[in-house]
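During the second year of the project, the team shifted from modelling isolated chains to modelling whole assemblies. The rationale, set out in the original proposal, was that interfaces cannot be judged from single-chain predictions alone. As a representative example for this report, we include one of the complexes processed in the last quarter. Its constituent sequences, exactly as entered into the pipeline, are reproduced here:
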Amino acid sequence: AQTVTQSQPEMSVQEAETVTLSCTYDTSESDYYLFWYKQPPSRQMILVIRQEAYKQQNATENRFSVNFQKAAKSFSLKISDSQLGDAAMYFCAYRTGPYGGATNKLIFGTGTLLAVQP
Amino acid sequence: DSGVTQTPKHLITATGQRVTLRCSPRSGDLSVYWYQQSLDQGLQFLIQYYNGEERAKGNILERFSAQQFPDLHSELNLSSLELGDSALYFCASSRAYGGTANTGELFFGEGSRLTVL
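Output from the structure prediction step:
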């Protein structure tokens, strides 16, 4: 069974600085997706960034980028120029690839609570 | 707006009672997933339906049940409620099958917050 581990329960960063959130996962599959979701105090689940395992290039979305190390099964999120609005719980998640059938649920890590200091 | 609609947004009830949470997936999405998030916890997968059929089950209690109707909306029924069932219940949807139409992403509703007193 696949598992997702986030070893940092809490992190803190100064406004305008850069922070990296860690995530590791375990799977025997070769085709899968990895995600970072953000959950602000409103509790809405918001997709931050997506990575397809077959792509070697790391995904980037504006100030958010990932470091995807497939062999090491590592998927970290880097937030550059941190803003107060980035303060939230961040969840790393795994999903079986697009041809894995209909039972491809998201498997979440336990989350990292990010505080942004002004 | 994710396109996934959940009702009610908030629900307060007493122990021993039964409630029904409702979810309408995004237009065109055939797969619906239910997740439970207890206070300060991660999201725990409960159950998945695809086009009306149950496809995957997580650690869902026997007191809980779900179904997906022909119009693809889904309901999660929680019975004999206990204090520990207080949580945020999320519904998410996706296309589920592969090809370019499936980006792999799940789209989440805003959740139904259940408080059991």
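The mean pLDDT of chain A is 92. DSSP finds no helices and twelve strands in chain A.
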